Backbone:
């Protein structure tokens, strides 16, 4: 269309040369109007494509249990035209208000299966196979363009295009924009089709972050009464739900949430029988994943993650874009192998020639980070702090010291890793790596890390340290210093961290002494909310432990 008007312009200039009385002002005005209309349509198209990507991010945030940390207005010539939205886990997005123009209404809508799908003018968008196109997961957001005065849409990232209606540019319904309202707990996105999507938020700026609705899950183990082994148990806001039936030793190592989905990993001693001649015959630990919906904890679905040939332990779990990941180690011999799982399929991160373990996992969109350590072949007393990104190793230390990565967090595109390091004859000191650059947040005081949370560069690190008297204390460290959580306890390790707005949860396990009536050690577990111990229901109050906690950012049911 631009080329046609260029030819017309040349023709008009030729005619003007033949007749000086020719007046082209009306044609110039019409061309100016056309150019302005075209520019408005192109701007509208760009804004709509930005909003389509933002809609996908908003739905993914819901699926991943993410929440909003700030909403910042965008202004042009003193007028608010949209907002920059920042998330605790995901990358920032921009959303624009509507622009005048007759536009295709592309939006999202939740179907009866609880999944959001794309819609066009109120109808489901479908692929070549006739199936609805999901918004999150591995799906690609639709794209729009204007060509020869018509709207075109692509569902495959611009490989092919389908023609829609004419791009008239006349005043019409405000179909392109996303409207935003918010209160202290939520941001409400009204999408072009009228659908409202609600995402939890925390306060930004200098004001304290308000609490956000959530359910707290804790995962661990409790002694089966009358036996010498344990139930694998999950606690929802302090109420217990056993995940194993008590017929074999079992325990939970970690829990994560993605919207209303809850995933737990742990072990059950139901693998191959081992009789080494030194101990009573025993069963190998089989790696297990449990999955349930919030409110349906009693009906968890169990999936085995290993065959039982070797003892296998998943230590961490994460979920993103419809995929479920876990990380841990397998013990075929003295030297363990670091492993990870994607949707139940196990892959090795190390070859077993030296000892290796995976301690933590982070899923950021389609990228997966696993943290742990690998023993150098030339230094059996050392350990390399390592991150595997999508299976590819990235080393944070050189192996001259003993170091490990225990927790991972993504903040505004920056990868944070927390762990510990010690020299050959020293004690562990806490380390926080920011995109691979280390900062030591403790001296050599016997530090262990089991939790990390970072928002806008402000961190909370959770774990334990040993004080000068030898007592082990559950602690949290922030940019402002250290806080002891287990005041009054002598042997208490930190075992988990979860943050919901202004609420900070810490899990810990106390070695509380010895029961001379039963001749057993007393082990008790705790969850502290903002420093206050919470009630935990258990059938074995003197022998239960917690190994992980997580918040599900949904309204508590029932």
Residues:
């Amino acid at each position: 269309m631009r080329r046609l008007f260029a030819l017309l312009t040349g023709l008009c200039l030729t005619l003007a040369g033949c007749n000086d009385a020719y007046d082209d002002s009306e044609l110039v005005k019409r061309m100016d109007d056309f150019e302005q209309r075209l520019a408005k349509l192109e701007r509208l198209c760009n804004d709509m494509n930005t909003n389509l990507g933002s809609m996908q991010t908003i739905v993914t945030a819901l699926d991943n249990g993410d929440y909003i940390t700030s909403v910042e207005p965008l202004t042009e010539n003193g007028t608010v035209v949209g907002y920059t939205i920042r998330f605790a886990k995901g990358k920032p997005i921009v959303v624009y208000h509507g622009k005048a123009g007759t536009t295709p209404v592309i939006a999202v809508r939740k179907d009866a299966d609880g999944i959001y799908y794309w819609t066009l003018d109120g109808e489901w968008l479908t692929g070549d196979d006739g199936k609805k196109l999901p918004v999150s997961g591995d799906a690609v957001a639709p794209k729009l363009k204007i060509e020869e005065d018509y709207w075109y849409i692509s569902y495959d990232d611009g490989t092919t295009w389908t023609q829609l209606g004419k791009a008239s540019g006349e005043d019409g319904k405000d179909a392109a924009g996303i409207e935003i309202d918010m209160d202290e707990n939520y941001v409400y996105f009204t999408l072009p089709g009228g659908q409202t999507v609600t995402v939890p938020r925390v306060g930004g700026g200098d004001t304290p972050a308000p609490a956000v609705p959530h359910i707290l899950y804790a995962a661990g183990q409790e002694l089966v009464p009358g036996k010498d082994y344990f139930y694998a148990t999950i606690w929802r806001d302090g109420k217990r739900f056993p995940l194993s039936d008590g017929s074999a030793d079992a325990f939970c190592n970690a829990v994560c949430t993605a919207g209303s989905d809850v995933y737990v990993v742990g072990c059950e001693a139901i693998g191959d029988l081992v009789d080494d001649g030194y101990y009573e015959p025993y069963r190998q630990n089989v790696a297990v994943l449990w999955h349930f919906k919030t409110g349906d904890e009693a009906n968890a679905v169990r999936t085995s993650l290993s065959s039982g040939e070797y003892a296998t332990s998943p230590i961490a779990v994460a979920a993103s874009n419809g995929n479920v990941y876990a990380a841990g180690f397998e013990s075929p011999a003295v030297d363990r192998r670091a492993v990870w799982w994607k949707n139940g399929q196990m892959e090795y991160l190390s070859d077993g020639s030296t000892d290796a373990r995976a301690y933590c996992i982070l899923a950021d969109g389609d990228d997966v980070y696993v943290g742990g350590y690998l023993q150098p072949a030339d230094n059996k007393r050392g350990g390399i702090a390592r991150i595997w990104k999508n299976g590819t190793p990235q080393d944070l230390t050189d192996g001259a010291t003993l170091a490990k990565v225990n927790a991972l967090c993504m903040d505004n595109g920056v990868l944070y890793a927390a762990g510990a390091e010690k020299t050959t004859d020293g004690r562990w000191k806490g380390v926080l790596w920011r995109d691979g650059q280390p900062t030591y947040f403790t001296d050599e005081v016997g530090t262990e890390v089991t939790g990390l949370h970072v928002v806008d560069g402000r961190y909370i690190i959770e774990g334990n340290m040993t004080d000068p008297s030898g007592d082990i204390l559950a602690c949290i460290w922030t940019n402002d210093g250290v806080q002891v959580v287990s005041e009054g306890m002598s042997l208490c390790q930190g075992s988990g961290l979860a943050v919901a707005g202004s609420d900070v949860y810490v899990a810990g396990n106390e070695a509380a002494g010895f029961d001379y009536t039963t001749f057993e050690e007393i082990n008790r577990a705790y969850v502290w909310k903002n420093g206050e111990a919470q009630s935990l229901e258990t059938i074995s109050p003197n022998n239960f432990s917690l190994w992980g906690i997580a918040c599900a950012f949904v309204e508590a049911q029932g």
Observations:
- The chain has two helices and 40 strands.
- Confidence is low (pLDDT under 50) at residues 1-22, 27-31, 169-175, 204-210.
- The longest helix spans residues 25-63.
